[in-house]
Amino acid sequence: MSLSCPIPLKQYPTILLAHGGGGRLMHQLISQLFLATFGRPEQPQHDAAVLTLPGNRIAFTTDSYVVSPMFFPGGDIGILAVNGTVNDLAMAGARPLYLSLGFILEEGLPMETLWRVVQSIQAAAERAQVRIVTGDTKVVDRGKGDGLFINTAGVGIVEHGQTIAPNAVIPGDVVLLNGDVGRHGIAVMAQREGLAFESDITSDTAPVAQVVSQLLQAGIEIHCLRDATRGGLASTLNEIATAAQVHITLNETAIPVQADVQGACEILGLDPLYIANEGRFIAFVPAAQADAALAILQADQIAKGELPNASAIGRVTAAPSPLVTLTNRLGTDRILDVLSGEQLPRIC
Amino acid sequence: MSLSCPIPLKQYPTILLAHGGGGRLMHQLISQLFLATFGRPEQPQHDAAVLTLPGNRIAFTTDSYVVSPMFFPGGDIGILAVNGTVNDLAMAGARPLYLSLGFILEEGLPMETLWRVVQSIQAAAERAQVRIVTGDTKVVDRGKGDGLFINTAGVGIVEHGQTIAPNAVIPGDVVLLNGDVGRHGIAVMAQREGLAFESDITSDTAPVAQVVSQLLQAGIEIHCLRDATRGGLASTLNEIATAAQVHITLNETAIPVQADVQGACEILGLDPLYIANEGRFIAFVPAAQADAALAILQADQIAKGELPNASAIGRVTAAPSPLVTLTNRLGTDRILDVLSGEQLPRIC
């Protein structure tokens, strides 16, 4: 973040429509800001990157990022755009390799803001061990965008023979969660609304592909993986219950929620189980392998300097119709339903 | 375009923020509008598509589409989003296989508009023989977008051993162009500005992967391919001249421009050589193969019911520094320089 912007800011303090026009200014942006940061491809600038993969079974995914505000405690839109897409590949059990990067910039965006985001993207890509290999930049007129939107698509290689999918979940599976929930949504909302909580709540955004790879290498039979982003843990589990036609019973006391996140949720009338996370995922594994898998998730947390609070949070049973229920602290059950929308819009 | 919208329009006449929220409304949109149109993947809804490719050398590309207005003579934003990305893959000599589809919708967008675009995307994907296999939908608040933006990323398979790249262009190459230029930009601008020209100028948007595949199968040694989109023919050729460090000489009388496009350009003070096209590309081939390649380009036009006006428009010579010049009708030369931006913004 300490490098100074390679584009002369006195001359080009903000993004102009011409930066998306295919002419000299667009090429300056691509060459001085993007190629200089992400590395020059082997072949000179071309319409597509040509890549030789270490196999022919791939995962392919995309996400757009419109989070508001762009910068929040623990991350920014650029970090999210890398980790979110990397994690979608990881959830298919793939090893992420390459990302594409599409910017939709609003005329008038400070050039320095773009530069800050570009640096975040590169740092996040290095951490997640992926390369940005192709991209695109469009500029829309002032008032027709919101600073900047990012789309990333990702290609990863699938090196295992397992079927990791919602409908592979079966009765008897244990539900594992790799850490505490609710931080990302609260961090973004607090920043957006200017709320000051007593402690600093930071986003949990992080790449999870390496720990998924460790689970696979340890021979864990993974039935399903899913990151608990939009809609949070509750919506994610409902999708899986529906796809697998099963009943998922959660144990509320086993779901880690930071005390300050819990406090913020109580003040704001939000439920942490419906709040978006950006580094949390659930894994469905056979009961016999649950302890071994949990140990890997906790070791990953320890390696990152986190509290090892990954947990077995629930169980799958057969059911006549799909259902997710939560057994609370008092031992009573309630249904965790799907909301019609998100409690908090534009969280990713 | 004749099917009625699967989402009940009385209940949901427009896009709501909740349609991007990860809850019930988003799943209704995905399942009833997207999956019902693009076909259900083999695996149930997951974060990434898992695909087995017929080889391991791929092309990977992305583009965002922000064209304004969304609908114009000869096409719309959805058709462009398929053809543009398909053509970027084709320009690497790849056979396009799979697309991702990311929507950024503005709250308040008429549901019927989205439905119309979704149908266009599917029709264009069928024509280009690609499948939409993964996607994402985000909704931004009213006033923070412009109806809808689309990002597509594409994966194609490279089945030849040639190096098709700007720096593979060498002195002696002939420059081929697969048809007339200037139509797309003028069609969009006329629609945007409400200009009525005497004749209807329609966009040239079309997939070009099949004709590229025919060139390769015929054994043409293709040095470089490039579609003449943003910045038009002139900017595209300048990029290549710079990458290859050569002089490209064009023959103005050989470059096909429709009379009504020429007329519109003269009235508006625009140069058709700088106007974006969406179905036109240039191919650099050895002089000995130029006639054979041109015959393939013209046969493709005839098969589509077009006037076979694909042409050899120029030649590559050695030069001390990169240069593109145009020999005009009177036999005099002028330099075709790079503009700082686009003559017409938001053209794709």
Write out the CATH superfamily name of the largest domain in chain A.
Answer: PurM-like C-terminal domain
Oligomer: homodimer
| Model regions low in confidence, pLDDT < 50 over at least 5 residues of chain A | none
Query: Which CATH top level class of the largest domain in chain A fits?
Result: Alpha Beta
Radius of gyration of chain A: 21 Å
Task: Summarize the largest interface: chains and residue counts.
Answer: A-B, 89 and 90 residues
Structural class of chain A: alpha+beta
Q: Tally of extended strands of chain A?
A: 14
Give the count of structural domains of chain A: 2
Helix content of chain A: 25-40%
Distance between the termini of chain A: 22 Å
Mean pLDDT of chain A: 94
Shape by Cα distribution of chain A = globular
Draw up the topology in text.
The structure is a homodimer of 348-residue chains.
Chain A: H1 24-38, E1 49-52, E2 57-65, E3 71-72, E4 75-76, H2 77-90, E5 95-106, H3 111-128, E6 131-140, E7 148-157, E8 173-177, H4 183-193, H5 209-217, E9 224-227, H6 232-244, E10 246-251, H7 259-268, E11 281-286, H8 290-303, E12 311-318, E13 323-327, E14 333-335
Parallel strand pairs in A: 5-6, 10-13
Antiparallel strand pairs in A: 2-7, 3-4, 5-7, 8-11, 8-12, 9-11, 10-12, 13-14
Helix pairs in contact in A: 1-3, 2-3, 2-5
